[in-house]
Write a structure and sequence with these properties.
- It is a single chain.
- Among the domains are: 39 residues, no CATH class; 78 residues, no CATH class.
- Helix 3 packs across helix 4.
- The protein is mainly α.
- The chain starts with a strand and ends in an 8-residue tail after the last helix.
- Helix content is 40%, strand content 8%.
- The strands form 2 sheets. Strands 3-4-5 form a 3-stranded antiparallel sheet. Strands 1-2 form a two-stranded antiparallel sheet.
Length: 177
């Protein structure tokens, strides 16, 4: 309803603008026509079968710290010596599943024992693998094969060398005189 001010007296107009009302009603009618077909028709839904598997626990995180006095801590437990730290590390090396192991040398100033004092190099990774094999009580070759397989499983984009490539890399023995 509107008010008209044509004269000095204001009077109410009784004309209603029905255009917006018709627009809204047409939109609602179209929505109703579309949705009623969806409601009437059945849509098959294929839901996946779910199983409840127990969660596997991950190994605990270990923090090894050295304070300013040189004391070594395993998580919050103070270790008595570096030999105690080595024993803890060897125990973990025995318990980690073999298919989860990688061997690397990433500390540039902490070379394995025979090379202590020298700069660490990737060529020394074999020494780490030897200690790992001793800790697990398995041959060095088994550790070398498994950690190589683990590397290529983890880094899939790195092409695995063929056996011919590996034979070419082996140093040739000197011919007998």
């Amino acid at each position: 309803m509107a008010i008209s001010f044509e004269g000095e007296q204001a009077e109410a107009m009784s004309d209603i603008n029905v255009t917006p009302l018709v627009d809204v009603m047409l939109v609602l009618l179209i929505i109703f026509i579309i949705t009623i077909r969806v409601i009437i028709q059945q849509v098959p839904v294929q839901l996946p079968k779910a199983t409840n598997l127990p969660t596997q626990t991950k190994p605990e995180n270990i923090t090894i710290a050295v304070d300013k006095e040189g004391d070594i801590f395993w998580n919050t437990q103070k270790l008595s010596s570096t030999e105690d730290l080595k024993a803890h590390l060897r125990a973990i090396a025995r318990d980690v599943p073999l298919d989860r192991l990688l061997v690397e040398t990433d500390a540039p100033y902490l070379a394995p024992s025979p090379f202590r004092g020298k700069r660490n190099e990737p060529a020394y990774v074999g020494e780490v693998a030897k200690i790992l094999a001793e800790s697990r009580g398995v041959p060095f070759e088994e550790i070398a094969r498994q950690t190589t397989d683990n590397f290529f499983a983890l880094f899939r984009k790195v092409p695995r060398p063929s056996s011919a490539d590996l034979q070419r890399r082996q140093p040739q023995s000197a011919p007998a005189a």
